[in-house]
Amino acid sequence: MSIVIRQMQASDGPLWAEMRFKLWDSLSVDEHLGDIGRMLKNKRRTGYLALSPENAPLGFAEICIREYANGCTAQPVPFLEGIWIDPKHRRHGVGRTLVEKMTADLIEQGFQELCSDAGIRNRRSHRAHENWGFAETQRVVYFRKILR
């Protein structure tokens, strides 16, 4: 399958929000639209859209430039905040093609590494990351204390 990858644009907002909701359903579609609006104004965050030759959406990925990420050596560092592929199109190279396009763009911008994370029990995501060329660097359990 031929896959077209391009950076997200403001006109992609409704479609992007629908896909984000499928990945992160703790926010409403409208809340995702607000987040997208803020993201498009922020030079440290960007999204990529995967399309079929017929212009049908196949998935998306988002990157944020972070000051630091566990397991990385460079600072600042691009971080793959999320990636979602329509279940009908998984295991057909969509994720790999998204990561390849992001990688090429990041190299052109002078970055040396791309970081990501996955839930400790999410073995499917671990395998996908390995297939996309990521290497596991560490396992971490984060804690928080609410201050009152």
From TrEMBL:
Keywords: Acyltransferase, Antibiotic resistance, Transferase
UniProt xrefs under Pfam families: Acetyltransf_1 (PF00583)
Domain N-acetyltransferase, chain residue ranges per copy: 3-148
EC numbers for this chain: 2.3.1.82
Name this polypeptide is given: Aminoglycoside N(6')-acetyltransferase type 1
An example Gene Ontology biological process: response to antibiotic
Functional note: Catalyzes the transfer of an acetyl group from acetyl-CoA to the 6'-amino group of aminoglycoside molecules conferring resistance to antibiotics containing the purpurosamine ring.
Source species: Rhizobium leguminosarum
UniProt-recorded Gene Ontology molecular function terms: aminoglycoside 6'-N-acetyltransferase activity
Catalytic activity entry: kanamycin B + acetyl-CoA = N(6')-acetylkanamycin B + CoA + H(+)
Assembly behavior: Homodimer.
Domain of life: Bacteria
